[in-house]
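User: I'm curious whether this sequence folds into something compact or stays loose and floppy. Could you predict its structure so I can see for myself?
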Amino acid sequence: MTKDPIVATLPGTRTDVLKLLVKHRIPGVPIVRKDKTLAGFVSRHHIFAKPEEEQLAIVMARDHPSIEDSATMDEVATVLAEMDISYLPVVRKGKLVGILTPVDLLRPLADMGIETPIEQLVRQPCVAVHTSTPVNVASEIMRLGNVVALPILDDAGHLAGIITDRDIFALSRVNGTIARRELGIAADEDAWAWEGLRNVMRLYWEERKIDLPRSPVRDAMVAKPVTVYRKTSASDAARTMVKNDFGQLPVVDSQDRLVAMLYELDLMWCLARRT
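Assistant: Here's the prediction. I'll summarize afterward.
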């Protein structure tokens, strides 16, 4: 658990949150009242879902799940898996004391010797693209498939690489000055460095249809990605994710043919099922 996490306080504004997301390079923050009680959660998705709203109380999600600090690891995994969320505020008597993510559970999971094969944990259909697919088309496929990474196949149908939403965003043709102005944020702080601004800008270019390169994904993909087999144990897969700082892994069969994508939230189910 991350203690004393970055928070936004009510009353506040959309711009206040954007500054925090950019400065600390995070996708969302818990919202607290002046007495430190948890009021909700806000992410870049919430912000861009209501682009006309400035008041934080209207933009934030009031029903975002939270959990008591006395909860067990299995109970935490259950909430993360069933609610399909990556950020879980931790409270004590209603007051925020920390935040948990799947990464916090991957580390102990890696050492637990859980032998459940990952083929039993994969939930989402596997959406793949060809090496010649244009980057802008790959971005649309991610959006339509509601995924954050795409495995890439060569002419023989073999896994050639992987591309993530971060990789694609790094290629986006977004003018930082224009983006700041249209988002209503100032450019007079170090926190507004373009590298930091990228944290919240992915949805900006989705919303504004900012142009992406038409170059093939082979030029931007990570070639020869780390893979796991479908019979790989949950603990071994978690260890691989932790070691390489990955949020997802391509899953292959004994012939090295792509069969699925495994995401960190998928691994939460092997803990959730123990409750």
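Summary: The chain has eleven helices and 14 strands. Confidence is low (pLDDT under 50) at residues 190-194.
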